[in-house]
Amino acid sequence: MKKLENTALSQDYILHPTVLFIGNNIIVDNKTDAPFTELQNAIKLLRLTVHNAYLADKVVVAKVETSSTPAEMLEKGFKLYPVKFFLSLPQSEIIHKLILQAMHWIEWDLTVQYCGQCGNKLRTIADLNEKKCDTCGLSFFPKFSPAVMVLIKKENQILLARSEHFRPNVYSTIAGFIDAGETAEEAVLREVKEEVGLEITDLEYFGTQTWPFPDRFMIAFKARYLGGDIQIDTKELEDAKWFTVDRLPELPYSGSISRRLIDSCLSDILKN
Ligand SMILES: [Zn+2]
Questions:
Q1: N or C: which end of the chain has fewer CB within 10 A?
Q2: How far is it, in rounded angstroms, from Cα 228 to Cα 173?
Q3: Helices (H) and strands (E) in the chain — how many of each?
Q4: To 5 degrees, how large is the angle CA 87–CA 176–CA 82?
Q5: φ/ψ of residue 80, rounded to 5
Q6: pLDDT tens-digit series, residues 90-124
Q7: What residues flank ion ligand 1 with Cβ within 5 A?
């Protein structure tokens, strides 16, 4: 992605299809849920202030603020969706990727502005995802925090857990960050032991996904229960229990790898 200066934005890119973010929300068409708008039009209609704008292929993505209320936005034919919810809607792989990339890049660009070594202002290298300190020479690249998630199966049941950070009533997989020096597999075993006190076996790689809320790189596994009783680490979790296919709690939105992992395990169980 290429960073756009405001002058470039007003002249060359104003008529490009544009995706607009306000915080962790995305502006969509009220009738079609389409995320694309025309920036010039949207600035006028919704009284937008553009903070940062980027060009991803032919699409402009921008972080904006608005002085319009939700009711005023609706009147003009727009509404706000939380990005995580938007990602759960049926849409093309290309849009999905664009949104994940844009969220990650915008967050990184806004939060990494000064050199961590000498404190001077960083210079963005326009066509690269890189910022450079011209004083000490240090380079900075978009940051990823690798984390693991695992879905544990015990005969026809799966283990799901709830953290206070989730939407109300939602249960998901066990997850946690990889420690320095650890492999992803070691992190899975440690997290499961720490958070729910269980032993697991037959770890099987499932897939990965960048998840820019704010900078996760998720590595997902399936595993089989080996032993132990559930003992919840109450600092991390509110609840954790075994669920059967016919009695499931509310699950994460379907755009997330956690939901794909859960769906895949449920389908494994139903096949057997
Ligand atoms: Zn420096």
A1: C
A2: 18
A3: 7, 16
A4: 20
A5: -105, 135
A6: 878 888 889 999 998 888 888 999 999 999 999 98
A7: 115, 117-118, 133, 135-136, 138
